[in-house]
Specification:
77 residues, mainly alpha, 3 helices
Length: 77
């Protein structure tokens, strides 16, 4: 089975102002449909993500999945 290319960095929270994910820049709709999109559609969206992320002004207040996983891994050591 081939893996699906994804811009996800495990910072999963949507900016209310822009509607973009703080981590990857996708919308909720794009995230939800990602696995059924064609590779061409995914690449087109990914090409525009850097510009979208420039418009996100603030970071999420809650702990992100990535930071939580890193914290839990440190506690195991």
């Amino acid at each position: 089975m081939n893996s699906i290319e994804s811009p996800c960095i495990l910072v999963c929270a949507i900016d209310i102002k822009t509607g973009y994910c703080f981590g990857c820049g996708r919308t909720r709709e794009e995230i939800g449909a990602w696995s059924i999109m064609s590779p061409e559609n995914r690449r087109t969206i990914m090409a525009g993500l850097p510009a979208r992320l420039e418009t996100v002004e603030r970071r999420p207040r809650r702990e992100t999945r990535r930071s939580r996983m890193a914290r839990e891994k440190q506690q195991e050591v």
